[in-house]
């Protein structure tokens, strides 16, 4: 495993109905849902480290801090960026920030995500007991 702080990744989406609080059930308005924002941030963390893990390894989420600061309507372009800020053995800490791309970019959300590197087969074996 060759993980070091500074690894980065980002995802870009255009908010559609499937991304909204109304569709997901976390609210009743057609704006980017907080659970969807979190899922995007987690997907970016996976992307940031996937090529740096040993064969048979993966990472799993263990802790999240999220501030959802602004609503993003249908059609908004939202970019979620992550950076690996700390590696402590198998524990990985990421900072993330989401911006709505427009004339004056707005911070949509920010926070931290912690993940732990695990052996995929052992993890799945324990999960199915």
Notable traits:
129 residues, 43% strand, single chain, alpha+beta, Thiol Ester Dehydrase, Chain A
Please outline the helices and strands.
Blueprint: E1 8-14, H1 21-24, H2 34-49, E2 57-68, E3 77-88, E4 91-101, E5 106-119, H3 120-127
Antiparallel strand pairs: 1-3, 2-5, 3-4, 4-5
Any idea of the CATH class? Alpha Beta
- CATH homologous superfamily classification: Hotdog Thioesterase
Question: What gap, in angstroms, lies between the N and C termini?
Answer: 28 Å
- CATH T-level fold name: Thiol Ester Dehydrase, Chain A
Helix content: 10-25%
Which structural class fits the helix and strand makeup?
alpha+beta
- In what range is the share of β-strand residues? 35-45%
Q: What number of structural domains do the residues give?
A: 1
Give helix and strand order, one letter per element, not per position. Answer: EHHEEEEH
Looking at the overall shape, the CATH architecture is Roll
What's the β-strand tally? 5
Low-confidence stretches: none
Total of DSSP H or I helical runs spanning 4+ residues = 3
Spatial extent as radius of gyration: 16 Å
**Looking across the biggest beta sheet, what order are the strands in?**
1-3-4-5-2
Mean pLDDT: 95
What does the main sheet amount to?
A: 5 strands, antiparallel
What is the 3D shape? Answer: globular
């Amino acid at each position: 495993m060759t993980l070091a702080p500074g690894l980065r990744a980002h995802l870009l989406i255009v908010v559609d109905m499937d991304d909204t609080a109304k569709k997901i059930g976390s609210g009743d308005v057609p704006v980017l849902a907080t659970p969807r924002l979190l899922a995007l941030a987690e997907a970016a963390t996976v992307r940031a480290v996937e090529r740096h893990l040993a064969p048979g390894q993966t990472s799993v989420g263990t802790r999240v801090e999220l501030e959802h600061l602004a609503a993003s309507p249908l059609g908004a372009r939202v970019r979620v960026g992550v950076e690996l800020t700390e590696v402590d053995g198998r524990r990985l800490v990421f900072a993330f920030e989401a911006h709505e791309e427009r004339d004056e970019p707005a911070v949509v959300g920010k926070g931290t995500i912690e993940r732990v590197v695990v052996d995929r087969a052992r993890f799945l074996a324990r999960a199915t007991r």
